[in-house]
Write a structure and sequence with these properties.
- The complex is a heterodimer of chains A (104) and B (525).
- Chain A has 104 residues and is mainly α.
- Chain A has one domain.
- In chain A, 78% of the residues lie in helices and 0% in strands.
- Chain A contains five helices and no strands.
- With 525 residues, chain B is an all-alpha fold.
- The chains are: A mainly alpha (104), B mainly alpha (525).
- The interface between A and B is large, with 55 and 58 residues.
């Protein structure tokens, strides 16, 4: 069994700080989009029933249109994050891991 | 109540038997590969990302999601859809905040992540308590629902149906562990997605593939007019809409059997992409399920309300019967049997996932790391895991039989999601994001979330004694809008009052971000 990595030293490294910064750059805005979109939907469903019952497209009401709009939003965030993380985060994490002795 | 043999429906029973044979075959194959604890609880960490995505989607597409959501849409229109769409978006916090970190820093259970940086034994005990409560409430609810459904669909008696479901679930878990549980879940997810697609496309076809036409016909048949298309028929109080939405959007992120899936893939990258695959499948499912619910309303006719039963759970199978040609026709009977079997498979796969999560919490958290302080070998941990699975399974069967099919399971489901959102989710989130968070905070948060959820559900209208819960002290059917903030508050207050034990936040942070020192998959050994 190899020696335990020096976690504090790793946490101080520029590559690690960059990894944390890049992850936050995606995660924080994405969480805000999620919170506003989904929260807005819940507020409308709770307090704007008349509006939600209006049917702008044939007989399909705003309630269903807004609820369904959450599906492509979720897809976009999920696949956007996977693409972003594969390109920007995994290489950094792998570089950091390569410098460290394997634990087992 | 025993149902006379004459009411047993041959065709659904035959399809159920075929399903049982297939899933037990999978279990036999998986049993030969279940040689150590990594295989038993984490499927050897060898599940590929799209496979795990299907299995995750399978855990999400429970009987409540398929029969429950389509039934509620049938009965109440739009309000039935809110829990479904909230459960879908819950994957955003799971993916962005938890999936990779769990895979990088954990071994088998969500408690692993708390134990890393906190005082291990108390923190693990708190997380195991949260896990076991969620599993217990959810499992008993599923078993009762399973018994009632199988009785209605196949004509087997409630008691026999509960025993059959429980026995199959225990066989998968005890012999095939996580490998069998995962593959049963994958097979079920494909079967269910296929069935729902056929149902929805058929419904659309009946309306000339014009979605608007389905909405128009359902609205006309509902007798509610425009109200059928807007919120308010089921969740009549505005605050209940928000509370229920939050419980499902954050609670699903704290369900132990879902989080456990992220340990079954080789690395964090696969955990991430499996969550995206899951979102893809679940999103498709929730587009289709609208047309199942509305289609049932549009096509079942005036008898529909009496056919589908309380809660509307039988809307999907009876829609299938009607589409296939109606009762007594070969097409109607076959399609009814197939959709019933999809529901049966769904229940079996989900309860197996719940039992394996409970067995991990008992054996890996409580036994090995709390009682034995980490001094337990693999063989012993697995033996305890199997005993725990039998214990939890038998207890759930007994409680389901005692409660009986008339028991209102809705409050048990609400309780499971409320505890998951208010007890498990705050502690998990703060453990990976807040440097000051400590053991006292985790314990206080879990206990406050748990106790307040149970107390407020007991005080809610659906449980409080008396006609229609008149005079119930708490007005909402789901307490999450109060208990989630209370759970976070408990974490914060406990942290500020407790002693700092933060020695390893840096370690958890580096490990969870980079995957250094993460558990290796069997293939990489």
């Amino acid at each position: 069994m190899a020696e335990t990595p020096d976690w504090d030293a790793l946490g101080e490294r520029d590559e690690f700080r960059e990894l944390v910064r890049l992850r936050r750059r995606f995660v924080i805005p994405a969480m805000i989009v999620f919170a506003v979109w989904f929260g807005g939907f819940l507020l409308l469903a709770a307090y704007a029933r008349d509006f939600m019952g209006k049917t702008p497209i044939g007989d399909i009401s705003w309630a269903y249109i807004i609820a369904l709009s959450l599906i492509p939003m979720t897809w976009a965030i999920a696949f956007g994050y996977v693409r972003y993380a594969d390109r920007n985060l995994t290489p950094l994490a792998e570089d950091l891991a390569l410098d460290e002795p394997r634990e087992r | 109540m025993t149902v006379p043999l004459a009411e047993v429906r041959a065709l659904p029973v035959a399809v159920f038997a075929v399903l049982l044979a297939i899933t037990l075959g999978i279990t036999y194959w998986a049993a030969k590969r279940t040689s150590d604890t990594d295989a038993f609880w984490a499927a050897g960490r060898g599940i590929k990302a799209p496979q795990n995505g299907l299995a995750l989607a399978g855990d999400y597409m429970s009987a409540a999601a398929f029969l429950g959501v389509s039934g509620l849409i049938f009965l109440y229109g739009f309000d039935g859809y809110i829990t479904g769409i909230a459960a879908l978006v819950s994957f955003i916090p799971v993916l962005l905040l938890l999936a990779e970190r769990l895979r990088n820093a954990g071994k088998y259970t969500m408690a692993d992540m708390l134990a890393f940086r906190l005082n291990a034994r108390p923190a693990r005990s708190a997380a195991a308590l949260g896990t076991l409560c969620v599993v217990a409430f959810y499992l008993v609810a599923q078993m009762i629902a399973a018994g009632a459904l199988i009785e209605a669909l196949a004509g087997l008696s409630f008691g026999f149906a509960v025993l059959l479901t429980g026995t199959a679930m225990l066989a998968y878990v005890i012999f095939g562990g996580m490998i069998a549980t995962t593959w049963v879940q994958i097979v079920k997810a494909v079967f269910l997605l296929g069935s729902v697609t056929v149902l929805a496309v058929w419904v659309l076809g009946k309306s000339g593939f014009n979605p608007s036409e389905v909405f128009a016909k359902a609205t006309k048949a509902s007798g509610e007019g425009a109200k059928y298309l807007e919120p308010g028929l089921f969740l009549t109080q505005p605050a209940d809409v928000i509370s229920t939405g939050l419980a499902f959007a954050l609670g699903t992120a704290g369900l132990p059997h879902i989080l456990m899936r992220f340990f079954t893939v080789p690395d964090a990258r696969a955990a991430r992409s499996s969550a995206a695959w899951a979102v893809l499948f679940i999103g498709i499912f929730y587009v289709l399920v609208i047309f199942v619910g509305l289609g049932a309303r549009a096509l079942l006719g005036p008898n529909g309300d009496s056919l589908v039963g309380e809660g509307g759970n039988l809307a999907a199978p009876y829609l299938a019967q009607t589409l296939g040609g109606g009762e007594g026709t070969a097409g109607g009977d076959i399609f009814f049997a197939i959709i019933s079997a999809a529901a049966f498979a769904t229940i079996l796969a989900v309860v197996a996932g719940l039992v394996i999560a409970a067995s991990g919490a008992v054996a890996h958290d409580v036994w090995t790391n709390v009682v034995k302080r980490g001094r337990s070998d693999q063989a012993q941990e697995m033996r305890v895991g199997r005993i725990a699975a039998v214990g939890v399974g038998v207890l759930a069967m007994a409680l389901a039989l005692l409660a009986g099919k008339e028991f209102n399971v809705q409050f048990l489901v609400g309780l499971a999601f409320s505890v998951a959102a208010s007890a498990n989710f705050p502690a998990l989130l703060l453990a990976v994001t807040w440097r000051r968070f400590n053991t006292a905070g985790a314990i206080t948060g879990v206990l406050v979330g748990l106790v307040s959820s149970v107390a407020l559900i007991v005080m809610s209208p659906s449980v409080w004694p008396g006609p229609d819960g008149d005079g119930s002290p708490f007005p909402l059917s789901n307490p999450a809008i109060v208990t989630i903030p209370l759970g976070f508050l408990g974490c914060v207050v406990g942290t500020l009052l407790g002693r700092s034990d933060d020695k390893t936040f840096e370690e958890l942070k580096v490990r969870s971000e980079t995957g250094i020192g993460a558990e290796q998959s069997a293939a990489a050994h």
